[in-house]
Structure formats: structure tokens, C-alpha cells
């Protein structure tokens, strides 16, 4: 009898009570809660580093292109009726994408209706396959977006002489956009004391209408280390208002967002800013980074606190969203003679 009682006593001492188990679980939960932000920060740091590396690859491609043609690519280029491409297309051979570039037929537009309006069906299909191909160098891993999106232009937005049909295509996104220039309210705020200042960036130039003067390093009067070429702007056809999709603006302008690397409008981004809550006003606003990714409004990344930008010399800078409007404008514009100190 005494042995049984002793054994039972020992068993009771070795077991955990329900309260003790709950305390242990609570402690583990607190430790996980403390550890999770650190893990998320480490993951974001790795993603941001990869995003920065993407821009460095693009910088090398820009300079290799310049070495070949003695100028940078046009922001966007028209090569035929309905057919054009933005700066990413012109960099393909310098981003180890020669095979993809070789599949492209520059005489045929990449749109679903190309064969129906008289272009060769096989070439049209091949071009559509090309622009649907994701390219890691054009996608930031921090971006919370699908890889492939649908785009299009309504019939009433097409140049005269083109068959009056809606044009559509599906393409892989790009999270990097040309810094074509500044305009609207943002430009007015930035250059309030110098309204005559140029608003043009490096890649504002186009190959439209037979223009042949592509941008050269010598044209960057402000210096390549002080001037942007490309900045982060979340791709795809969704327009964001801060970190949430703006359903109204997406429905109205998402298809012409220029959010794909194979989309001609990726090279046409004269930013006029937005309001600080991400709202898009008709003439722009004071916020230029991480408020809206709308084409013609601002730059936008899922990195906390700012976005990465490629400089004319091939270096990359992380630009905080709190940057002064004048400083940002000076780094977009290429020939105002402005000297910009470190951010």
C-alpha cells in the first residue's frame, strides 16, 4: 500500500497540469510574436536587395547599349502602324534575353487583333508569346502582384486611319518605369522658385514620327550620378491607393497603365504626383513615392519608406518617400544645372 502511494505521488509530480501547459503555450506564442517581425524584416531586406540588383543589371544593359549605339534607348519607340516598344525591349540583348529578342518581329504589333486587321497570324502569335514571358530582371520580388495581366486600348483612343476596334493583349508585368519627367502640381511645387526650369528627364525622348535623336550621356548636363533613368513603379494593370487597389481608377485606366515590360507605355511616365492618401487628382499633388502607382502620377514600391531608382551612371539609390519635392525634381530632370547632395 505504501509503495502504491509513493509511486502515485511520483507520477503526480512528473506530470504537467493544464495551467502549466497553457503558460508554456503562451510563452511560445509571445516568443513567436517577437520573432516574426524580425523574420519579415530579414525577408524584405533580401527582396529589396534583389530588387536593387535588378536595377543594377538594367544599368549595365543601358551602358552596354550606349556603348553600341552611342546613346541610350528611346523611352518608347514606334516602328510601324500600331507597333511600338518601350525601353525594356531595346535592352533585351543586353540582359541575356537574346533568344527572346530574336523571336520578336518588329513589323507586327503584339495584340490579339493583329491577324484580324491584316498582319501575319504566325508573327502576331509569336509576338504575343514574347510579351507574355516573365523576365526576372523586370520584376521586384517585394511586389504583391500577379505576373501576367490583361491590357488594351479602346477604339476611340486609337490614331485616325487605324481600324476602329478595341485592341487587347496579355503581358508580363514590369515594376520599373522610365523617369520621363515631371509635370502638373508636383512640378509647380518643386519649381515654385524657378518656373522656367526644364521638366524633362533622360528617357523623355521617343522614336515617334521619325525622330532620330536618342538620348546621350553627353546630354545629361546635371551629371549621370545626379540623374535618374528608371524608378520603381509597381507593374500590372491594378492602380493602387497606398497599399490597397483603387477599384474605380483600375476599372477606368488599368488597361492603359503601361505596367508590362512589353508595353509601349512603360516608357511614358511624366509624373505629376498624387495626394498623400493616394487619391489621384486631375492635376496631381505633392506625394511622388509610394502613394499611387498610376501612370503619370507617381512611383511606387512595396518597400517600407521608399523606392529604388537607377541613376544615369549605373548606380542605384534607395530614395525615401519623404524626399523634398525640389530634390526629387532635380534628380529627374537632366539639364537644369542642379547639383544634388546625398539623400
UniProtKB/TrEMBL annotation:
This is DUF1559 domain-containing protein. Keywords: Membrane, Transmembrane, Transmembrane helix. It comes from the Bacteria. The keyword Transmembrane helix applies. The chain crosses the membrane at residues 21-39. Residues 40-324 form the DUF1559 domain. InterPro entries: DUF1559 (IPR011453), N_methyl_site (IPR012902), Pilin-like (IPR045584), Pre_pil_HX9DG_C (IPR027558). It comes from Blastopirellula retiformator.
